[in-house]
């Protein structure tokens, strides 16, 4: 090591990248413009804490527990929508998502499929429900169908991404031993990706539980429907019960589904270890 | 996985270890799935009535409206600019406010950056509760509280974004190797010093990526917030639907679609460059 | 030229906290919560300015021992004293202050890969900076100058604005040494500093440590699992086996028989590091 300098050494100048500067100023301008453009009286925010306490008291100080059975029934209807929507959506997404994966389907099939997924992703489930209720009417079935179709957008994308990120070795091995496309999918791909796909399917259900409550707001039934009605009637003691039910049910389903998903993924890892040893 | 053919080598059949019985488990899983599906599809128990007959019956009616949707009425476009702009402004403002709030919350919700277990658990619990309430439910209640307009919409988006950004970023911190923490402690640093100087830059890419993702989701959500009176283009959707103007409705949907796809493309480019 | 960094320092040459300090372990036992006893009644004294190698197999307790010295691991019984600090008695702010006087470098470098080299080395100034300064990202000129000088002394100054993750293994360990030097430590601990490096780089990092010991008179404790390096660069060697001191004497005169006592098996080729 060299002798130590008495004075602080001359450090190289700190690099200032123009692109970063331009990007940060652009972001700042967009955000400030959006703040300024919104027709919001920010003074109102000062009243917000008071409002929250006021309505919070109305909702939760003395909830009307006599509404609990009806709330639970409507929640079950929402969960049913979520479940059937997830089931149908996952089946459709798997059928459409596998050929959309690179290395499985040909390009002329992959591109239109991916385009379709992107379009569905861009349309909110509520809008899908509004469109299909012209045929099916304002029923929970409409909600389930909207969830199924809306789910294809993201779920099919996850499906082909999972397949594409699967380690190629197993597929190669099946190909090398003379397997065709269907054998490759069944024996090369499926064993590797099925745990992750199962986990994603459960996750789809968790998302649907939330979305089904939203769909209720346009009138297809379930807890969301009930919530709109009582909010519009300003029966805050009932709204309080509904919110508590939504939170408890959603968190419980998340916890159960999450535990199952962890088990699925850990099982997959354990089996992977057995395979490699 | 693939067994080498052993028959040519060994004459006698090899000692095969007993095959583990997996079918009872598989059967059990299938049974649970089938029962759940049957229960959810039983209207008598409060489930969903799968009414395929209604589709057949309403088909002409529906086909008529879908036909209308296939011929978008572009004359509605000028009326959409202002609400569309408001939708985008709400999305940006919601993402910006939640991004600022998410920085300390993410650090508090992750194990390496917050060793105080009870505090961490409390932060996580509150966030889980926030995430358990669907976005439009917030909007509905907030509209009833503070009145119709963009403000309840923005608050809804902030609550929604904080839920996902903090969850995903804190999980990224949790799963990342945090060996630099030990170095910071060995140098006599406080937790906030370590967080500021090393954990923050370390988390930056995950953070930016999730904020961009929340912006994408915001555009989608703020498009429908107007359905319950929380501002943006959703108000027009509700209006057109009320007047059965399905040709105008499809114009608006197409417009949202284009904007969402554009934002997604821009965000993808940005996220790739950040990596 | 950056005027911030050219300011001459009155004290001149990298002052240590207050000259080198001795390190004393008195009957130290460490029992982990899972029941493993990592150190058994270890008593030893390292004189001020000594350069000592601690050798032993992995799991022999040498990592634990070095971590008890700066309080990253608290002894179950016994006491640890470093210069004026009774480390094993200290908590909170006092412990952080003591750690600030003890530099440490790690096998895995423990750098924040996405943070710049400068920020990583600034971690060494933590115990000298108030938390609010770090939070606002404001380092004083003196802190900056100290970091720059430390980086310069290990030849890493021109990389100061690079990301730590973009460096090679040897460069990372140099930055880690600069981080420890920025603390102006009185004692330097090194936990397997060369185990992740290729042989030529390992030798140059060991030479750096020896130079720090010689030129600044720092007390240096370095964990090694290779005997060659211990013989070549240190004056005294402490052998640990299953948490107990089995050898304590001059490094140069340690025989193969002594190594067998430490390793519990005859010396093999893999215990030596090629030149």
UniProtKB/TrEMBL annotation, chain A:
GO terms for cellular component: plasma membrane. GO terms for molecular function: ABC-type phosphonate transporter activity. Residues 75-257 form the ABC transmembrane type-1 domain. Gene3D superfamilies: MetI-like (1.10.3720.10). Keywords: Cell membrane, Membrane, Transmembrane, Transmembrane helix, Transport. The chain crosses the membrane at residues 82-105, 126-152, 212-233, 239-260. PROSITE patterns: ABC_TM1. SUPFAM superfamilies: MetI-like. Belongs to the binding-protein-dependent transport system permease family. This is Phosphonate transport system permease protein. It comes from Demequina mangrovi.
Automatic annotation (TrEMBL), chain B:
This is Phosphonate transport system permease protein. PANTHER family: ABC TRANSPORT SYSTEM PERMEASE PROTEIN P69 (PTHR30043:SF1), PHOSPHONATES TRANSPORT SYSTEM PERMEASE PROTEIN (PTHR30043). It is found in: Cell membrane. GO terms for cellular component: plasma membrane. It comes from the Bacteria. Residues 84-267 form the ABC transmembrane type-1 domain. It comes from Demequina mangrovi. Belongs to the binding-protein-dependent transport system permease family. GO terms for molecular function: ABC-type phosphonate transporter activity.
UniProtKB/TrEMBL annotation, chain C:
Gene3D superfamilies: P-loop containing nucleotide triphosphate hydrolases (3.40.50.300). PROSITE patterns: ABC_TRANSPORTER_1, ABC_TRANSPORTER_2. SMART domains: AAA. Residues 1-10 have a biased composition (Basic and acidic residues). The keyword Mitochondrion does not apply. Keywords: ATP-binding, Cell membrane, Membrane, Nucleotide-binding, Translocase, Transport. InterPro entries: AAA+_ATPase, ABC_transporter-like_ATP-bd, ABC_transporter-like_CS, ABC_transpr_PhnC, MetN_ABC_transporter-like, P-loop_NTPase. One of its GO terms (molecular function) is ATP hydrolysis activity. It comes from the Bacteria. One of its GO terms (cellular component) is membrane. Residues 23-267 form the ABC transporter domain. Residues 1-21 are annotated as: Disordered. This is Phosphonate transport system ATP-binding protein. It comes from Demequina mangrovi.
